[in-house]
Amino acid sequence: MSKFLRELGDCLFPKNITCDICGRETFDGTNLCPSCAKTVTLNDGTTCPICGRKTAVNEVCLECKAHPPAYDRAVSALVYRDGGAGLVMKFKRGGTYLKDYFADLLAPKCRQFAIADGVCFVPMTARAERRRGYNQAELLAKELADRLDLPLLPVLKKKKETGEQKSLTRKERESNLKGCFSAHKADVTGKSFILVDDVLTTGATAEEAAKTLKNKGAEHVYCAFAASVEFKNEL
Question: Fewest beta carbons within 10 Å, which of 45, 132, 153, 176?
C-alpha cells in the first residue's frame, strides 16, 4: 500500500514546481530556487580517486592511504553539507521523488566504472524498512540501474539491527556493523557490482558491505552515494 501511495503521489504532485529545500515556487523545470541552489555543492572538481569525496587536491586522500577500502572506487552526487545534507535528509524522511534527482547526477559518474553486472544496494532489516516505509538506497539503486541499463540485483541481506550510527566513532561503527550483512556465493561469485547507499561518512557501512561481496567472490565493487562528507585532511 505504501508503494502505491508513493507512486500516486508522484502522479498527483508533479516534480520541479517548488524548491525541494525552502518550498518556494519555481515553475522553471528545476528542483531548487536560485537562493537554495547556492547552498548545494555538487561533488565535482577535485575528489579522491578512490573514495570519491571532495578533497583540496586531486589525489588519494590520507584516509584511503591509511585504510584502503574494500571497494574499488566510489562516486557521489553531492557534498554532504548545508543544502546537500538537507536534500539527503528529505530523501530519507519521505521525499522519495528525490531518487530521480540523485540518479540523474550519479548516472554519468557511474559510466566511468568498468562494466558492471548489476546494481545492488545497502539493505535494511525488514523491521527497519517497515518502520520507515521504504529503503532509500533501494529506490535510488533502481533508478540508477534503469539509467545505466543494468539489472537491479538485491544480493545483500541485513541480518541484524545496528541502530543509529551518527554518534559513533569510526571504530565503533566498524564494530557495530561487523557481520551484519550476508550474501549467497552463487549470486555474487565472479560478478562486478555498483553498490548504492545514501551517504558516505566514515565509510564503515560501505566497507562492511563491500567486504561481504568480495568475501563471497565478487570481482569488483564500485560504490555510488547520493552524498559524501568532504575530506578535511584529518584522520
Answer: 45
pLDDT tens digits for range 136-165: 999 999 999 999 999 999 999 999 887 666
End-to-end distance of the chain based on CA atoms, in angstroms? 45
What are the beta bridge partners of residue 225?
A: 76, 197
C-alpha cell at 69: 577500502
Helices and strands, counts by H and E, the chain? 10, 6
* C-alpha grid cell, residue 234: 584529518
- Measured at the CA of 25, the angle between CA 22 and CA 31, to 5 degrees, comes to 70
158 three-class SS: strand
In Å, what is the CA distance from 10 to each residue of 7, 56, 70, 103, 177?
5, 39, 37, 16, 34
Q: What is the mean pLDDT of residues 42-55?
A: 96
Grid coordinates in use for 100? 530521480
SS3 for 32-81, per residue?
CCHHHHCCCCECCCCECCCCCCECCCCCCCHHHHHCCCCCCEEEEEEECC
DSSP secondary-structure letter at 197? E
Sign of torsion over alpha carbons 99, 100, 101, 103? positive
